[in-house]
Amino acid sequence: MSTTPDQTEDGGFIKTPKQLFTVVALLIVGVVAVFLAINIIVPPASSGDAHNPEAVESRIAPVARLVLVPTESERVLKTGEEVYKSTCSSCHAAGVSGAPIFGNVDAWQPFIATGFEEMLNVALHGKNAMPAKGGNPTLSDYEVARAVVYIANNSGASFEEPAAPEAAAD
Ligand code: HEC
């Protein structure tokens, strides 16, 4: 009955605890080095396109999205005619509640005589049956001013179109 080669060996090249420690330490360093090398050469699948804009966007996306509505200065301002048709004509076209009728020069003459500023003041803040901003608070002061000019200029006046808010700020 023959013996295996292992049993005949004299213990191999590891003979002292110090040598064992050195071999184990080298093994660990080797494994870590290989692991790091693989990571550098082959990035984990999930980060394959980690830096493309969509991936970044999806990671930093807020839980809830804010939809921005245009602010007063950004939204498209209505022209005087648009404001008149959408808001003012409900009274001023037919003379509801004694409103001076659009285009009636005689009816508007007394108001026009007070001047644009006074007419605008009433249009903005109301008087008697005339509601502030024609009852439409979403209109900007500038849009109301345009409507006043539009109405007045079609009813005997020749006011100048008021300066746009941006221009007025200069
Ligand atoms: C609910 C009906 C109504 C609506 C809507 C309305 N008006 Fe009038 N408006 C009146 C009446 C009534 C008067 C007359 C007020 C008075 O002098 O007693 C008047 C008067 C006016 C005057 C003359 C004010 C003055 O005393 O100098 C102007 C300018 C005017 N309206 C502009 C507008 C504009 C611009 C709009 C739309 C943004 C508008 N109105 C919408 C009823 C209305």
What is the N-to-C order of secondary-structure elements (H for helix, E for strand)? Answer: HHHHHHHH
CATH architecture of the largest domain: Orthogonal Bundle
Q: How many independent structural domains?
A: 2
CA-atom Rg in angstroms: 42 Å
What is the third-level CATH name, the topology of the largest domain? Cytochrome Bc1 Complex, Chain D, domain 2
- Mean of the pLDDT scores? 85
Give the tally of β-strands.
0
**Fraction in beta strands:** under 5%
Class from secondary-structure proportions? mainly alpha
Low-confidence stretches: none
Count of individual helical segments:
8
CATH class of the largest domain: Mainly Alpha
The proportion of residues forming helix, as a percent range, comes to 40-55%
- What small ligands are held by the chains? heme C
Distance between the termini: 111 Å
Identify the overall geometry.
rod-shaped
Largest sheet: none
Polypeptide structure, described:
The chain has 170 residues and is mainly alpha-helical. The protein has two domains: 14-60; 80-169, Orthogonal Bundle (Cytochrome Bc1 Complex, Chain D, domain 2). It is 51% helix and 0% strand. It has eight helices and no strands. Helix 4 (80-92) crosses helix 7 (141-153) and helix 6 (116-125) packs across helix 7 (141-153). The protein starts with a helix and ends with a helix. The mean pLDDT is 85. Residues 83, 87-88, 90-92, 96-100, 111, 114, 118-119, 122-123, 127-131, 133-135, 144, 147-148, 151 line the site of heme C (HEC). The site of heme C has 29 residues, from helix 4, helix 6 and helix 7.
